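Backbone-to-sequence.
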């Protein structure tokens, strides 16, 4: 079931993106490229696991070729735990999975693997939430922007420069690939994570892009910004190996797999990545 549900999710968001004319049809080719190797890996695992499971335990006085070693049986089960739970899949580089050139900026978010959640404090209401759980299965891309060591409120900060680029530049993926008349986060749901505690930051001083007005009545979205859980010593920057000095952008696909890790100022690379498979909206 774990693998069949992943098959469905993998194909579902891609098919929906093509039918909505958000992405080029070539996106559908990545379904077989990603899921066929995973299916073969599952078959190989089942064969070996079934053989070990059906074999008799090896006694201390028996030769190495007879039976299965109970300790080896246990080690194999523990080793394959994430795989059998459907969490050990690792997709190779493709048009929707970038190269690992900047992987050192977020060691805990390996490109091509499932996005690993962590507790954070939401800046808007100081509520403890899980970063990966606030995202719904709605077909949107998630961009997790982790701030560097600089003051995020400063005009010269890289996170503010990124927000200005996304909001104003004609090369911004948000402007190019979001259909006219839809909310600014209809395709890309951008969320920021700062290093400072929530009591040290003023919501009203943050970039306007991170507090967009949405919906029929233009209400402010207060759920785009987060801080580490310093009170319980669960700092997401430490837990997920985020480069504190430079910060980074972690791009997560609609199926919650990490698509890319980029520096905060890699505006051109960000635009080029999405231009590789998405269609401009007019």
């Amino acid at each position: 079931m774990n693998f069949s549900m992943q098959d469905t999710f993998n194909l579902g968001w891609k098919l929906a993106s093509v039918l909505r004319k958000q992405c080029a049809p070539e996106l559908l080719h990545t379904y077989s490229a990603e899921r066929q190797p995973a299916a073969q890996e599952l078959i190989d695992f089942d064969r070996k696991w079934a053989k070990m499971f059906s074999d008799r335990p090896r006694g201390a006085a028996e030769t190495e070729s007879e039976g299965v070693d109970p300790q080896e049986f246990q080690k194999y089960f523990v080793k394959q735990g994430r795989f059998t739970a459907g969490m050990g899949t690792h997709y190779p580089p493709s048009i929707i999975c970038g190269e690992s050139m900047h992987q050192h900026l977020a060691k805990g978010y390996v490109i091509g693997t499932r996005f690993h959640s962590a507790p954070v404090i939401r800046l808007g209401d100081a509520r403890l939430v899980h970063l990966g759980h606030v995202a719904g299965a709605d077909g949107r891309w998630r961009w997790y922007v982790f701030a560097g060591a600089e003051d995020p409120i400063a005009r010269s900060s890289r996170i503010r420069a990124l927000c200005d680029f996304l909001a104003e530049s004609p090369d911004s993926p948000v402007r190019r690939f979001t259909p006219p008349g839809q909310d600014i986060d209809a395709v890309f749901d951008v969320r920021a994570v700062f290093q400072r505690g929530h009591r040290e930051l003023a919501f009203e001083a943050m970039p306007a892009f991170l507090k967009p007005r949405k919906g029929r009545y233009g209400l402010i979205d207060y759920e785009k910004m987060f801080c580490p859980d310093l009170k319980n010593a669960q700092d997401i920057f430490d837990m997920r190996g985020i480069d504190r000095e430079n910060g980074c952008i972690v791009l997560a696909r609609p199926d919650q797999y990490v698509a890319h890790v980029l520096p905060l100022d890699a505006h051109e690379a960000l635009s080029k990545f999405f231009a590789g498979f998405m269609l401009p909206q007019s």
